Amino acid sequence: MFSNYFKIAFRNLWRNGVFSVINIVGLALGVACSLLIGLWVEDELAMDNYHAKSPVLYRIMQSQTFNGETNAGPHTPGMLSYELKKKFPEVVHASGFTWETDLNFTVGDKFNKQKARWAGEDWFKMFSIPLLAGTPATALKAPESMAISRKMADNYFGSPQNALGKTVEVAGRDIPYKVTAVFEDLPAQASEKYDFLLTWEDFRKRNNWVEQWGNNGPRVYFELRPDANTANVEKRLKKFLNNYRKEEYPNTLFMQRLSESYLYNDWRGGTQNGGRIEYVRLFSVVAVFILLIACINFMNLATARSERRSREVGVRKVMGAVRESLIGQFLAESFLITALAVLVAIGLVELVMPNFNELTEKQLVLSYTQPSTYLILLGVTLLTGLVAGSYPAFYLSGFNPARVLKGRLKFSRGSKLFRQGLVVFQFTLSILLIVGTIIIYRQVSFIQNKNLGYDRENLIYIPMEGELSTKYRTIHQQLLHMPGIQSISTINQVPGEFGSNTTGVNWPGKDPESRPLFEATGIGYDGLKTLGIKLLSGREFSEKYATDSAAFLINREAAALMGYKDPVGKPITFWDRPGTIIGLVDEFHFHSLHEQIRPLILRLDAGWSTSYYGAMMVRTQPGQTQQAIASLESICKQANPKFPFTYRFADVEYGKLYRSEQVMGTLAKVFAGLGIFISCLGLLGLAAFTAEQRTKEIGIRKVLGASVFSVISLLSKDFVKLVGIAFLLASPVAWWALGDYLDKFYYHVNLDWWVFVGAGLLALLVALLTVSSQAFRAATVNPVKSLKSE
């Protein structure tokens, strides 16, 4: 019986080739989109979940309140990991962990930049990172120990076994480091990437501020005993920092599961406010909606062919076929079409996968060696086939054979409303996607064109490492006479990467109870000129003034906070160092546009740190970037031969701050286009159905003198109403959803009314073009053919 179902199904597919191709293409696009999104969602949900101890792994979060404003983040005091193990018996292991840093790695005559971090000796005891050489207990124990990846071991030493015990030079330091462990390359599901790890003791030696409990920066990860009372631990953590501060400390600590730290990474007002999990939810819904649109398209096309299939149903019923067998027949056709669509979808996924991976910066694959892949594909086929084919199967199998064979087939008002409802649903989703795409595109465009207060064009950053800092004055003089160079300066933290802030600022008249937070960084001579920052009053740092070592520049937000209308010449104390404000700078964005511009203090770089860790900034002549890079490479290689010459463009670094928004915007455009295309296929089906139902009416109207335009208008006006209803349903939903999206940016575009109207008009235009093509075809049919049966 089942073989007969599929035999007849193949014949019907072949006989109705055009409808079959449209069905298969529509379903294939829907399935392909859903598979791609499903792979992306699966990868996102798997981030940091590969650790065997994942249920008992946490990181410490700190909530900080300054002048009534509360913020939360993972940055904590550098000694916290040590104290957790001492004071909390529930803590089995704990480790500090730093931000990613590019350090020069030298073995003999081989040297290159590698991504480094510092971690505590418990790191490999907590996490499921296999060691190919060495042991978890000794990997990061001795101060000059290091653990490197398999890839580094192969590149520098030939194999992990050969690497063990070898000494290397890191970042030009005189102290040699010893390879005490080689770990397996980190999986794609690791959110924190690094090529090698140095010890926490080494980090303490490099940074004396780590010993001070008032400074924050590193992260802390820890492992709890399986039987630990987490509520009790978190309660004791809350005011834990008060034990290490003389005054009452308003900052509090709390815990976050490691498995949630990647997806739930947005904290506002000290509380959890989503994060990447919102993208996961959004695109999961988009995947379901696109698949539903494709299924609705199938339903509408099947309904459009109902009159042709009605006589088939009538004859089968007269010959003794029961309704169940007819349902089985139509479902078999649906499953067959879906199976073919899934095969086409697999081909589409494989075709676009490289581009999709490049866009999302992932390594997704549709694995054919995993049984789960086939179970998923089978599940998609069965579910899609059932959803797409259920309505046509039950609808067509319910025809009355007597009426059908007498040519009296009529469709109820309920079935008409149901089909129209499907079209409204499709276009509601399509308009949502269009509005979302427009808003995301406008926001990304706003970000790219926003006046940041500094000029990121023709600006290059070069890391100050090795001998570049000690030879900077000589290099500076040499480069100023090289082709393509306009100006040069230094800065501790480049815009977009500011991470140093402090409450250690005082001025006359300050409320002793207030704790305002200031951003702070060091900048060199000609820093404002090189960055292109506008000076509102006063002057910038100059070698002509020896007193500038105790001078400061502030921005307008800092001046307003201090209550200074004209701050130049006013006294200020920074980190217990008295000084004077010598200049007021205009607003410039040193963080992303997600954040408000905050009070800023710029100090002169010279003499403030024992080891420079910032960047040399080079402003190039417009149109002479390549000449400038060649000049920089020549001078830097000569002055710093043990380090590879590396540089970054300021505009590229700025773009990286909004990589997620750019990816989401591109995906939104693609999905919006596919949603509209698939919706139009469904609309085409309904238009064909309507024209088929009104064939004789059209013939009569033409005989009575109706023009082709009037017939097209007659068939199109109902669909205009459907798109209008879809617009009314989509607009408030889009307003709410996109308002929430834009709220994540402190600086953003407005939700203008014309965006919604434009999206509605675009959907209407596409719908009219789709319907008009079918209406024109029906209107130009010779009325003799449509009326000859009368």
UniProtKB/TrEMBL annotation:
It comes from the Bacteria. The chain crosses the membrane at residues 21-41, 282-302, 326-353, 373-396, 417-441, 670-691, 719-738, 753-771. Coiled coil: none annotated. One of its GO terms (molecular function) is transmembrane transporter activity. It is found in: Cell membrane. InterPro entries: ABC3_permease_C, MacB_PCD, Macrolide_Exporter_MacB. PANTHER family: ABC-TYPE MACROLIDE FAMILY EXPORT SYSTEM PERMEASE COMPONENT 2, MEMBRANE COMPONENT OF TRANSPORTER-RELATED. This is ABC transporter permease. It comes from Siphonobacter curvatus.
